[in-house]
Amino acid sequence: MAIKHIAHKTPESRGLSSEWNDNHTIDGDVDFNQFEAQAVALENLAAPPIAPATGQIYFDTTLGELRIWDGAAWLAYTGIDETTLIRKDGTVAFTGNQSMGTHKLTNVVDPAAAQDAATRNYVDTKSSKKAFIVVDAAGNGDYDNLRDALAAAAAGGEIWIKEGTYALDDGTSTVYTFPSNLTVRGTGVGTILLTSAAENYWFSFLNKSYITIENLKFQILTAAGTEAPFDLDNADHITIKNCIFGFGNTNMDAIFWDSGGNTATNFTLQDCSVVYNEGGGVCVFALDMNLGFVSGNRMHVLDAFYDAGENYNNCTIINNEWANFVTTANSTTVTASRVVGNITEPGHSFTFAAASNYNAIAGNVSDSAISNTGTGNVLAGNAVY
Fold first, then answer.
1. Do residues 282 and 190 both lie within one domain?
2. Which residues span the domain enclosing 310?
3. CATH no. for residue 176?
4. Which pTM was predicted?
5. Is residue 374 part of a domain?
């Protein structure tokens, strides 16, 4: 017998139908045969029952909670507030620190935003970048070539190139791309970067910023129709100091140019020189420049500018030696700049044509008097030798 009226003690006992709603007791398992137990209220007790069976439940009126006996202790079941759960669709966020309990987060993408979590692959890749790199052609450094050093350099790092000759045409690529925020420094006058093949340009600073190149000697061949071996298109804060340039053919038009016609800003060329120029007819600049600083350079037999419609604005051009310093009417112009203490070589001169306006032109020396048809230029202390 499973369910019986507590007032009847034996199977033979009979009760009235009116007694059905009185208390009953269960003395065995009850199979509902997949029917519902409806309008059921759990036993309400002020204290736990004595000698409970595993799985026994009651509602504790003192604690105000549903309790379940797990065979060893009473467990409270207080219900689940879904607003406190983390949802897999990401609509509910953590509100406190979380422990993974020695487990892993897997299948995580590399970070994009500043506060994204970093994967091990991302950290390993970044940590492989080096803040200080030594390049030695003899194999006694981190690398024996410039290309690998550039690839491994960390932002804000330095590459030191020991004295030696480094062939740049290595069969990998015709272009050496410099990353931003980098210093590349030769350790002596015998640090030579050499090209023996001919290509359009070798050194790209395209869209890069805060790069310093110093104490290097460049011996360069270029392909027919080449603009220049250094591309400064849209570059900012590029500094080239104490470098020597040598050019072995007639194919190039300039040393520096902008491949896409975008202005180079804050470019510094300081204390550099040309030791030989077998081709002749080469100039220094074929680019638009703003806030340039050009000082102390000895550009023998090289004109300052290539006449192709460039503008040099708000530049400081001081104490340099050129062949010609010539602007052309409404084409290549120098504006709002300081041109001081420069010298042109014998047979050459300074020309400030129409639209080369509002310059301070002082203390320059040339083979003939300065030609000035610009507007608002101030000339003082210039001389003819």
1. yes
2. 132-323
3. 2.160.20.10
4. 0.68
5. no
Cα dihedral value 329, 268, 297, 257, nearest 10: -50
Q: Quote the CA–CA distance of 221 and 202 in Å, as a whole number.
A: 10
Domain boundary among 95, 118, 147: 95
Do 8 and 141 lie in one domain? The reply is no
What 8-state DSSP symbol labels residue 100? -
Tell me: do 191 and 48 sit in the same domain.
Answer: no
**Residues 89, 199: one domain?**
no
Token look-up 């966020």 returns: 93
Do 59 and 203 sit in the same domain of this protein?
A: no
Same domain for 163 and 302? yes
pLDDT in tens, the chain (385 residues): 556 655 555 555 655 555 656 677 777 787 888 888 888 888 899 999 999 999 999 999 999 889 999 999 999 887 766 667 777 787 878 888 888 888 888 888 888 888 888 887 777 666 678 899 999 999 999 999 999 999 999 889 999 999 999 988 877 777 899 999 999 999 987 899 988 766 666 799 999 999 999 999 998 877 776 678 899 999 999 999 999 988 776 677 788 989 888 999 999 999 999 886 665 557 899 999 999 999 999 987 788 988 778 999 999 999 999 988 988 876 889 999 999 999 998 989 999 999 999 999 999 999 999 999 999 999 999 999 8
